[in-house]
């Protein structure tokens, strides 16, 4: 690997490689935030559905008593 690195021209080592690393790091960061955001959105939706279901059950039980 060191031989390959030293065989590259200096402009590739100093410009191209860091730019590629930054692009890959940015894409990885966006991916991680996207996954976390999707999981949080799913959790919020699930909590809303559970809350609505609980309210319906309470109202049905209350209506059945009367």
UniProtKB/TrEMBL annotation:
Alphabetically sorted, this entry's keywords are: Membrane, Transmembrane, Transmembrane helix
Does the entry feature the keyword Membrane, yes or no?
Answer: yes
Transmembrane region positions? 12-33, 39-60
In terms of superkingdom, the source organism counts as Bacteria
Pfam families attached here?
A: DUF5326
**Name recorded for this polypeptide:** DUF5326 family protein
Which organism is this protein's natural source?
Answer: Kitasatospora misakiensis
Q: What is the lineage of its organism?
A: Bacteria, Bacillati, Actinomycetota, Actinomycetes, Kitasatosporales
């Amino acid at each position: 690997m060191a031989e390959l690195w030293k065989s590259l021209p200096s402009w590739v080592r100093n410009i191209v490689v860091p730019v590629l690393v930054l692009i890959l790091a940015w894409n990885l960061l966006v991916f991680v935030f996207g996954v976390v955001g999707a999981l949080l959105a799913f959790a919020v939706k699930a909590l809303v559905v559970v809350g609505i279901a609980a309210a319906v059950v309470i109202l049905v039980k209350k209506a059945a008593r009367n």
